[in-house]
Amino acid sequence: MAREFVGRQDELKTLHQKLQGSDQVAIAALAGMGGIGKTALAQQYVRQAKDEYPGGRWYFKLREQNLATLLVGAAALFDWQLPDTLSDDGARVKWCYDQWCHHFPGTRLLLLDDVQTYQDVKHFLPIDNPSFRVLMTSRQRFDKPVDRLDLGELPLPEAIELLTALMGDRERVTAQQTEAEALCEWVERLPLGVELIARYLAVHGNLRFSKLLERLELQKLAARAMRDLPEEMAYEYSIEAAFELSWQDLTPEAKTLMGVLSIFAAAPIPKGLIEGALSKWDEEDLEEGLDAGLVKRNLLQRDKDGSYQLHQLIREFTVGKLETELGEQTSALQKGVAVAVTNFASTIEPIVRKDDRQAVGLGVPHMALVAQELNDILADDEDPGWVFTGLARFYESQSLWPEAERWYKGRLKMSERRFDSDHPDTATSLNNLALLYDSMGRYTDAEPLYARSLEIREAQLGPDHPDTATSLNNLAELYRSMGRYTDAEPLFARSLEIREAQLGPNHPDTASSLNNLAGLYRSMGHYTDAEPLYARSLEIREAQLGPDHPDTAGSYNNMATFFYALERYAESANFGVKALEVFLTKLGQDHPNTQTVGNNFVTILQKVIETNQTEQLSDHPLTQRA
């Protein structure tokens, strides 16, 4: 019984063009993962195009027997007597093709289903007879001379139509349209998965779609809807059995690689994270394993940005292997993934630049997975807090405050549980959360966190430690924002003193202390004290970080607003344009810092024009417009 066939009309048309578009022998292949519908599409093509092949259409499934044996068996069915003089498979195959041509003239189609490797059939194809067309299906992606058509998942409308056709109950599907779409997405619109769901729902007529989805999410591939194979199914394998066939063809190294990939989140995986998780693997061996071993077998997808992604159902299948066949390796593989993702998180800057946002975004789901599921695998000295901080920085840089707060709180909870309430890591977690609240203007929430962080660092690290200086600086900055200048000044001064002594007079952290103390003096109206500190801070940042660093841009902006307050508008504009240019380039025009600096710059230029200071402007195109 042929299964219901829905959709794939573009693929059918393309396939026909590949098989009919040459005067030579046309060899085409439908490639894709198990359950994607290769055989069903090939059979539908045979039904639709039967008039194109008056010489007949022969179908062979190759997994159990080789092509030569199958062709001889077909000849026997027609009572064609094989001569005893044919001594090898090549001669017997040629004789079978000759008989086929003799008895059935016209163009003919040879359909070879489930070809494991091209080498298995290469020497038995009728390449010398242009009346033949050869169509193969395979889990592997063959290269030239095969003209390959790769099959992907069904588009959602076609998946819903297939579900409806197999259930025979359009009214039921329409009434639960949203849930029906969710079911199709759960099997990632894999035709075999859609058919299993449809036939299960057809048998269980009173079952709500939402209830089945709940069972699938809980039981995964072990759910009855995925495991039981109805008699009327055209497929001979369940999803798990179909994947098992591909799994058994893999080398031990490829299985290990699949295991690693399944530990990552169900999202695109940057190649660098895979390399980090398998740091002892040779680079070329890893590339061979990913591309030739898995992508070519349609077990793994390689995206245009160089990342890799497992099909969700294949990932679920491989997760099961981590508990069985790969069980002895699982702990080491999980540790490799956790370390790789943590190392990645540690490279994320406090402000995620525009150019880095996409790369960091690819790491977000994997950082979240390590934070929630694999964090305890990391040793205490392997910086288990970095995944929380990396996530928070990513969201904070986009002003997504609730998400940033969630991950900073997550780090604090982890630190207090894993270490203790007075550990330096807990002090860091408190400081990070306080910084977020400070940025949000939640000063009363930030103050006790800053104070507790400072108390821990002074007690555990000492009064002259650079981290103690950081806590002093941050608490002082909070007091300045609150207008508590007399409380802030001694803290700023002490922080600067520690940093100059411990880190050196030209360290970026020393520049931050200079900048912040200058800001305090400015707020207090002590302009003559503020200007040399601002200037020295800017000098250090330009020398140590470069003119295009966001911190340097921050100094440009501070100089701009400082000179604006002194009514030195041309000098203000010359620094303002530098700040704006860096923020536009590094953070993007939609970033809050960029928008603030941009608005300030417009106001400054208006004052330049009003006070007739345009001759003092720099030759930058933006200032020259004034």
Report on this structure.
Among the domains are: 9-150, P-loop containing nucleotide triphosphate hydrolases (Rossmann fold, 3-Layer(aba) Sandwich); 156-240; 250-344, Arc Repressor Mutant, subunit A (Orthogonal Bundle), CATH 1.10.10; 545-626, no CATH class. The chain has helices at 9-20, 38-48, 67-77, 89-103, 156-167, 170-175, 177-186, 191-203, 209-219, 224-227, 239-248, 252-263, 271-277, 283-295, 312-322, 330-345, 357-374, 386-396, 401-418, 424-439, 443-460, 466-481, 485-502, 508-523, 527-544, 550-565, 569-586, 592-610, 621-624, and strands at 26-31, 57-61, 108-113, 132-138, 147-150, 301-302, 308-309. It is elongated and about 110 Å long. The N and C termini lie far apart (79 Å). The mean pLDDT is 91. It is built from 29 helices and seven strands. 61% of the residues lie in helices and 5% in strands. The strands form two sheets. Strands 2-3-4-1-5 form a five-stranded parallel beta sheet, sandwiched between helices. The chain has a two-stranded antiparallel ribbon with strand order 6-7. It has 626 residues and is mainly α.
